[in-house]
Specification:
With 66 residues, the protein is an all-alpha fold. It has helices at residues 2-8, 18-26, 56-65.
Amino acid sequence: MIWQSASRAGVGIIQQPTFLIGQVLQQGRLMLLLPRYRLSDIDILATYTSRRHLSAKVRVTLDFLA
Protein backbone atom coordinates (compact mmCIF):
# COMPACT_ATOMS: atom_id res chain seq x y z
CA MET A 1 0.00 0.00 0.00
CA ILE A 2 1.18 3.50 -0.77
CA TRP A 3 0.79 4.75 2.81
CA GLN A 4 3.06 2.00 4.06
CA SER A 5 5.93 2.80 1.77
CA ALA A 6 5.55 6.58 2.20
CA SER A 7 5.35 6.45 5.98
CA ARG A 8 8.20 3.97 6.31
CA ALA A 9 10.31 6.20 4.08
CA GLY A 10 9.87 9.04 6.58
CA VAL A 11 7.87 11.19 4.17
CA GLY A 12 5.23 12.08 6.74
CA ILE A 13 2.77 10.76 9.26
CA ILE A 14 -0.32 8.61 8.81
CA GLN A 15 -3.52 8.09 10.72
CA GLN A 16 -4.61 4.46 10.55
CA PRO A 17 -6.53 2.14 12.87
CA THR A 18 -4.34 -0.29 14.80
CA PHE A 19 -6.07 -3.30 13.24
CA LEU A 20 -4.50 -2.22 9.92
CA ILE A 21 -1.00 -1.37 11.15
CA GLY A 22 -0.71 -3.33 14.41
CA GLN A 23 1.69 -5.91 13.00
CA VAL A 24 3.88 -3.23 11.40
CA LEU A 25 3.99 -1.40 14.76
CA GLN A 26 4.96 -4.58 16.61
CA GLN A 27 7.74 -5.21 14.10
CA GLY A 28 9.09 -1.71 14.72
CA ARG A 29 8.73 -0.66 11.10
CA LEU A 30 6.43 2.20 12.19
CA MET A 31 6.25 4.07 15.48
CA LEU A 32 3.44 5.82 17.31
CA LEU A 33 3.93 9.56 17.22
CA LEU A 34 1.18 10.56 19.66
CA PRO A 35 0.49 7.43 21.76
CA ARG A 36 -1.94 9.15 24.16
CA TYR A 37 -4.00 10.79 21.42
CA ARG A 38 -7.24 9.03 20.57
CA LEU A 39 -9.68 9.92 17.84
CA SER A 40 -13.30 10.49 18.68
CA ASP A 41 -15.80 7.86 17.63
CA ILE A 42 -16.69 7.87 13.96
CA ASP A 43 -19.99 7.50 12.20
CA ILE A 44 -20.74 4.47 10.10
CA LEU A 45 -22.69 5.23 6.96
CA ALA A 46 -24.71 2.74 4.97
CA THR A 47 -25.56 3.41 1.34
CA TYR A 48 -28.10 1.35 -0.54
CA THR A 49 -29.95 1.82 -3.79
CA SER A 50 -33.54 2.10 -2.59
CA ARG A 51 -35.71 1.73 0.50
CA ARG A 52 -38.17 -0.27 -1.53
CA HIS A 53 -37.69 -4.03 -1.73
CA LEU A 54 -34.75 -4.27 0.69
CA SER A 55 -33.46 -7.78 1.11
CA ALA A 56 -33.64 -9.28 4.57
CA LYS A 57 -29.84 -9.20 4.81
CA VAL A 58 -29.71 -5.46 4.11
CA ARG A 59 -32.57 -4.74 6.53
CA VAL A 60 -30.94 -6.73 9.35
CA THR A 61 -27.61 -5.00 8.75
CA LEU A 62 -29.22 -1.56 8.79
CA ASP A 63 -31.11 -2.41 11.98
CA PHE A 64 -27.88 -3.60 13.59
CA LEU A 65 -26.01 -0.43 12.63
CA ALA A 66 -28.82 1.78 13.91
